[in-house]
Design brief:
With about 260 residues, the protein is mainly α. Helices cover about 75% and strands about 0% of the residues.
């Protein structure tokens, strides 16, 4: 119950911070009822959630997850500032990818780790298995964030949100394409919005990059599932985990198939 409430709190707050107007096919909370009420609701839900977690170890786990989630969202929003954009533009490709992975692990990976960490804390799982599960959830978080980033460029899955967010440099596709030097006349202040959109959508390596990243998401999901299967107590528990993950995980496979068909690969 605590995890479910915290996930809803994250939805309410993230939609405000990301400027998302639609959630679950309906108007986002801040659109329907205003930002003040949505902000208060998200904050209140966090405190309400902890009432359901009596075990001190579980409470500590959930509080830590909330802190990581807020940190990841702050890093994401920082890419909208000229200062951070300038730093990213000056960094080599590997450093940009490392930045993206650390942000995604905090922001999206936390959503996968939070319910599992709470259960692990309550069940007193041994340290070796905890490390395995933590790494698996990190991989699932990266796969999920790749899916989110890539659907900005794939109308078949992104729908109305395709080509929506060009206000920052947190999208992995942007960071990959910037490894080939951006236009010389573009500064950190200029390479944003319509200028960034034009640069990315007109890039000759866009389709190839989408294909490579889609394949990476599929591999991350596969590796995470394999790792979790290794610590499951039975085939039944492994099957249950698969059903849970594939509720969204099958879309990662579909994304890869769609990009492959589009590129003729």
């Amino acid at each position: 119950m605590a995890v479910r409430i915290l996930l809803k709190a994250a939805v309410a707050l993230d939609d405000i911070q990301d400027g998302s107007d639609v959630r679950y096919g309906e108007a986002a909370l801040h659109v329907a009822h205003g930002t003040p009420l949505a902000l208060n609701t998200g904050s209140w839900l966090i405190t309400a959630a902890l009432r359901y977690a009596a075990d001190p170890a579980v409470v500590e786990s959930l509080v830590g997850a909330v802190g990581k989630g807020f940190t990841g969202q702050a890093v994401d929003m920082s890419t909208r500032s000229a200062h951070t954009r300038a730093e990213l533009l000056a960094e080599p490709h590997d450093a940009r990818v490392e930045f993206w992975e650390s942000m995604s692990a905090l922001k999206t990976g936390t959503l996968f780790r939070m319910p599992l960490d709470a259960a692990v804390a309550g069940l007193r799982v041994v340290e070796a298995e905890r490390r395995t599960l933590d790494d698996a959830m990190r991989k699932l978080g990266l796969a999920s964030q790749l899916f989110n980033d890539l659907t900005d460029f794939v109308p078949e899955l992104g729908g109305a949100n395709t080509h929506e967010d060009f206000g920052g440099l947190s999208n992995r596709v942007f960071l990959e394409l910037l490894k080939s030097a951006p236009p010389v006349e573009s500064t950190a202040d200029e390479l944003v919005g319509e200028r960034l959109k034009s640069y990315v959508l007109g890039h000759p390596q866009l389709e190839e990059t989408l294909l490579v990243l889609a394949a990476e998401a599929v591999e991350l999901k596969r590796a995470a599932k394999e790792a979790v299967h290794g610590v499951c107590r039975s085939d039944r528990s492994a099957a249950y985990f698969d059903v849970t993950i594939e509720r969204k995980g099958h879309l990662i496979d579909r994304l890869h198939q769609t990009v492959r068909q589009r590129s003729g690969a």
